[in-house]
C-alpha cells in the first residue's frame, strides 16, 4: 500500500496502485482498527453498490449519484470522510482529502480492497445498524408499531424491528441477513 500524507505524489501513481492518500493530520498508514477512529466515507457516483455494502456493515457512507465532484470533495474534507472514488479525473485534482482509489468494478472486490487498505473490521453490533438507502442510523421499533407496515408472515415470525428515521423503511433480521453475513465472511473481511 502506498500512502501519501500530503498528496504530493503524481495522480498517475495513485491511479495505478489504488492507494490511500490525502491531506490528513493522522497517520493513514495505521489501520482504523488500531487507531480506534470511526471511519466515515463519501462515495462517488460510480460506487453506489459499495456504499450500500459499507452501510450494511454499519459504516456512515454519504452517496449521491448526482453530486458534483467539487461538492463531494468539499463534503469529504469538511466532514472528515474518506473519499472513495473510481473517477480517474478526480484523482488529477490537487489537495484531495484522504481517499482510496477503488480499482475493481465488482462490489465484492471493492469491499475487500477498502476493508484491507483501511484495516476495517466488521463489528457485529454495528452491522445492519444503518439504512442502506438513506444512510440514517436505525432506531428500534416496537413490534406493534410496525404491524401495518410489514407483511403478515413477517409480523407473525419476527420479534425485533428497526425503523429508519430518515426514510421510514422498516428492517428486521430475516434470512437475507444470514445470506449477507455469509457473503461478508466469504470476502475475508475481519471481524
Task: Give the DSSP E fraction (strand runs of 2 or more residues).
Answer: 5-15%
Mean pLDDT: 82
Q: In this structure, how is the largest beta sheet organized?
A: 6 strands, mixed
Strand segment count: 9
Distance N terminus to C terminus? Answer: 21 Å
Helix content percent band: 25-40%
Instruction: Tell me the overall shape.
Output: elongated
The class by helix and strand makeup works out as alpha/beta
Could you tell me the radius of gyration in angstroms?
18 Å
Uncertain segments of ≥5 residues (pLDDT<50)?
A: 1-19, 23-35
Count of alpha/pi helices = 8
Describe the structure.
- This protein has 191 residues and is of the alpha/beta class.
- It has two domains: 3-118, no CATH class; 139-186, no CATH class.
- The chain contains eight helices and nine strands.
- The protein has helices at 11-17, 32-35, 48-56, 69-78, 88-91, 107-118, 152-157, 175-186, and strands spanning 3-4, 20-21, 41-43, 61-63, 82-85, 99-101, 139-141, 161-163, 170-171.
- The strands form two sheets. Strands 1-2-6-5-3-4 form a six-stranded mixed β-sheet, with helices on both faces.
- Helix 3 (48-56) crosses helix 6.
- The longest helix is centred in the middle third of the chain and has 12 residues, at 107-118.
- The protein starts with a strand and ends in a 5-residue tail after the last helix.
- The relative contact order is 0.15.
Amino acid at each position: 500500500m502506498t500512502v501519501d500524507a500530503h498528496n504530493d505524489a503524481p495522480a498517475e501513481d495513485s491511479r495505478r496502485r489504488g492507494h490511500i492518500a490525502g491531506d490528513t493530520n493522522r497517520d493513514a498508514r495505521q489501520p482504523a482498527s488500531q487507531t480506534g477512529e470511526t471511519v466515515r466515507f463519501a462515495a462517488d457516483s460510480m460506487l453506489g453498490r459499495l456504499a450500500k455494502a459499507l452501510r450494511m456493515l454499519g459504516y456512515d457512507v454519504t452517496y449521491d449519484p448526482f453530486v458534483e465532484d467539487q461538492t463531494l470533495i468539499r463534503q469529504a474534507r469538511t466532514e472528515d470522510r474518506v473519499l472513495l472514488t473510481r473517477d480517474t479525473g478526480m484523482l488529477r485534482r490537487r489537495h484531495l482529502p484522504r481517499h482510496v482509489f477503488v480499482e475493481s468494478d465488482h462490489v465484492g472486490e471493492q469491499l475487500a480492497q477498502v476493508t484491507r487498505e483501511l484495516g476495517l473490521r466488521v463489528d457485529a453490533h454495528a452491522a445492519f445498524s444503518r439504512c442502506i438507502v438513506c444512510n440514517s442510523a436505525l432506531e428500534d421499533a416496537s413490534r406493534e408499531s410496525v404491524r401495518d407496515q410489514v407483511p403478515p408472515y413477517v409480523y407473525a415470525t419476527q420479534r425485533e424491528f428497526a425503523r429508519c428515521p430518515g426514510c421510514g423503511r422498516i428492517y428486521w433480521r430475516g434470512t437475507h441477513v444470514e445470506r449477507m453475513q455469509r457473503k461478508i465472511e466469504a470476502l475475508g473481511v475481519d471481524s
